[in-house]
């Protein structure tokens, strides 16, 4: 079982491109357009890595991150920050995000970070079960 | 009071065992005498004397060994007690810090509630102007609760003993990523970030997100300390078989009297509510858990340097 | 009617001293506020006051350090220590140093008000005529 990604962003164009590119690499990916949907999906299905935009209307990225870490501590989160959300990015890092990627996103960089995050989750799980 | 006394090694009960000199002097004397008389006396007497001297030697060696072991055990007990008393002192300091940090927002909340109650008036029908004040008070209560929550959450993070998950990663990359994040804000404030990386560093094996947190904390601290036109130098290197990360700023520096306290939980020189005073102590704890050390040097007026040393 | 009691609040928490000032003002006190020891000394140089409400842990000049200076600057004022600091030792040391009383934060406003009136009345009673 390989890496399973949940991508959370309110920008539909961006999320569509992201889904396409992950699918092209044969990495299963699910999209959510807001925080509550993402949290509901996480409760229902197993994911390894969440790619999470910091700036979303309604529930903001930091709140979603805290909820994810509370309910699914082993799920790794990579946050997406833009020019206007650097502060949120820094807070996100100290709240337990695995890493961040600046928007506009370099897909190669995101993929590499997602894989590193997945590796960490596997290491974590193997130790917890042993 | 008695508990405090028992921590003090000077007031421990005296050692009542007899002095050591009869054994230490007598045994070699006997052995020497035995050898001498074995040369002069008939063989049988010599053998008996030698046996006797040997027995005395063994006996005194046993006594010595027992003494040494007892001393070691006592030392170990003392170490434990010292550790315990240091722990107690740390807990005392920590709880005093927590009490103070939480009490201040609570004091504001208490006051805002008193004011809002009063503004509501006896018939519960506040005037137009008072309503705005009441709303302001409620907002303030919300803000202060958020402040308390931030403190308790950080404390919980502080208390959480998550074992590090070790991954291999390029140190320069981890640092550069955090530098990019902070640089945007730094440029806005007229502070430059200077890189001084040792490109020959091999990959490090460490808990990467924890290390990111430490570097980000050091960078944001440096940024807050650096005035406009100043710079932050971010360097990596190798020293004594360790990977070294240095964050150097050109800010106001750390006064000598604060140097011993900067890693204490809740120590802060920021305005009330602006910092929890936990950043550096959390970072210090993280680096220690990663098997490294976090240290600071500063010449007041000439900035400060924080150094992270990690095992390679 | 008696003159209003003149209170000087010294606390580094801006919101705290402002709201406390507002409340005490509504209850008939004349209130000035200072964010630290030095600011308080400057205010006392302008005009004296009756009761100083003094925080302990403040950046710069701490309450403990400010106490003798404030008393020298305004000998007729009574000092009421109001602290969120867990160290009661410091508060008692400040009583020895001439403060009239101390209260622990958080403290309901009416309790604080009662304490201000109490130290003020005590001073009025002992004041040489």
Written account of the structure:
The complex is a heterotrimer of chains A (about 130), B (about 300) and C (about 130). With about 130 residues, chain A is an alpha/beta fold. Chain A has a single domain, classed as Rossmann fold, CATH 3.40.50. Chain A is built from five helices and five strands; from the N terminus they run βαβαβαβαβα. Chain B is of the alpha+beta class and about 300 residues long. Chain B is about 60% helix and about 15% strand. Chain B is elongated. Chain C contains five helices and five strands, in the order βαβαβαβαβα. A five-stranded parallel β-sheet of chain C has the order 2-1-3-4-5, with helices on both faces. In chain C, helix 2 packs parallel to helix 3. Chain C starts with 5 loop residues before the first strand and ends with a helix. Chains in contact: A-B, B-C. Chains B and C meet through helix 3 of B and helix 1 of C.
List keywords for this structure.
heterotrimer; B: 312 residues; alpha+beta; Heat Shock Protein 90; 2 domains; 5-stranded mixed beta sheet; 8 helices; 7 strands; disordered N terminus; C: 129 residues; alpha/beta; 5-stranded parallel beta sheet; 5 helices
Q: What oligomeric state is this?
A: heterotrimer
If interface size is counted as residues with C-beta under 8 Å from the partner's C-beta, which chains form the largest one? Answer: B-C, 23 and 22 residues
pLDDT averaged residue by residue of chain A: 90
- Count the DSSP helices of chain A: 5
What's the shape of chain A?
A: globular
| CATH-derived architecture of chain A | 3-Layer(aba) Sandwich
- The amount of beta strand of chain A, in percent, is 15-25%
What's the Cα radius of gyration of chain A?
13 Å
CATH superfamily descriptor of chain A: Response regulator
Which range best describes the helical content of chain C: under 10%, 10-25%, 25-40%, 40-55%, 55-70% or over 70%? 40-55%
Taking all Cα atoms into account, the compactness measure Rg of chain C is 13 Å
Overall pLDDT score of chain C: 89
Q: Any idea what the shape of chain C is? A: globular
Level-1 CATH class name of chain A: Alpha Beta
Output the CATH topology of chain A: Rossmann fold
Order of helices and strands of chain A: EHEHEHEHEH
Please count the helical segments of chain C.
5
* Percent of residues in β-strands of chain C: 15-25%
- Structurally, the number of domains of chain A stands at 1
């Amino acid at each position: 079982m390989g890496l399973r990604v949940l991508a959370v962003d309110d920008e539909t164009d961006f999320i569509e491109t992201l889904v396409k590119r992950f699918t092209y690499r044969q990495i299963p990916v699910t999209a959510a357009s807001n925080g509550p949907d993402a949290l509901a999906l996480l409760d229902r299905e197993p994911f390894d890595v969440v790619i999470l935009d910091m700036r979303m209307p309604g529930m903001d990225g930091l709140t979603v991150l805290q909820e994810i870490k509370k309910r699914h501590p082993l799920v790794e989160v990579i946050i997406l920050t833009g020019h206007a959300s650097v502060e949120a990015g820094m807070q996100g890092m100290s709240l337990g995000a695995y890493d961040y990627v600046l928007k506009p996103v370099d897909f190669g960089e995101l993929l590499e970070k997602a894989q590193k995050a997945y590796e960490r989750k596997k290491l974590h799980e193997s130790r917890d079960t042993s | 009071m008695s508990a405090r006394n028992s921590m003090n090694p000077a007031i421990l009960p005296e050692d009542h065992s007899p002095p050591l000199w009869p054994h230490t002097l007598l045994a070699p004397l006997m052995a020497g005498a035995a050898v001498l008389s074995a040369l002069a006396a008939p063989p049988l007497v010599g053998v008996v004397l030698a046996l006797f001297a040997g027995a005395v030697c063994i006996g005194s060696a046993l006594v010595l060994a027992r003494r040494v072991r007892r001393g070691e055990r006592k030392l170990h007990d003392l170490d434990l007690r010292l550790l315990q008393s240091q722990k107690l002192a740390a807990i005392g300091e920590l709880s005093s810090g927590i009490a103070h940090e939480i009490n201040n927002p609570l004091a504001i909340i208490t006051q805002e509630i008193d004011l809002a109650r009063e503004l509501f008036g006896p018939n519960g029908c506040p005037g137009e102007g008072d309503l705005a004040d009441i709303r302001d008070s409620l907002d303030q209560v919300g803000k202060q609760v958020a402040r308390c929550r931030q403190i308790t959450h950080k404390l919980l993070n502080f208390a959480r003993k998550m074992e590090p998950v070790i991954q291999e990663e390029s140190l320069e990359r981890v640092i550069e990523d955090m530098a990019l994040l902070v640089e945007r804000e730094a440029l806005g404030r007229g502070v430059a970030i200077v890189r001084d990386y040792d490109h020959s560093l091999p990959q490090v094996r460490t808990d990467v997100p924890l290390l990111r947190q430490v570097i980000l904390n050091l960078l944001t601290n440096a940024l807050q300390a650096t005035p406009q036109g100043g710079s932050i130098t971010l360097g990596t290197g190798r020293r004594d078989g360790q990977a070294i990360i240095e964050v150097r700023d050109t800010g106001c520096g750390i006064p000598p009297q604060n140097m011993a306290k900067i890693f204490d939980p809740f120590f802060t020189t920021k305005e009330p509510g602006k910092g929890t005073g936990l950043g550096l102590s959390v970072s210090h704890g993280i680096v220690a858990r990663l098997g490294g050390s976090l240290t600071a040097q500063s010449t007041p007026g000439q900035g400060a340097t924080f150094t992270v040393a990690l095992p390679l | 009617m008696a003159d209003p009691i003149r209170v000087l609040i010294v606390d580094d928490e801006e919101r705290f001293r402002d709201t406390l000032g507002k409340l005490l003002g509504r209850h008939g006190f004349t209130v000035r506020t200072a964010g630290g020891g030095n600011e308080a000394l400057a205010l006392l140089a302008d005009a004296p006051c009756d009761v100083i409400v003094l925080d302990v842990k403040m950046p710069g000049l701490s309450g403990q350090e400010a106490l003798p200076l404030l008393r020298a600057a305004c000998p007729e004022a009574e000092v009421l220590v109001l602290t969120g600091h867990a160290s009661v030792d410091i508060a008692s040391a400040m009583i020895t140093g001439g403060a009239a009383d101390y209260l622990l934060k958080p403290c309901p406003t009416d309790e604080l008000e009662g304490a201000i009136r109490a130290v003020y009345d005590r001073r009025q009673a002992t004041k040489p005529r």
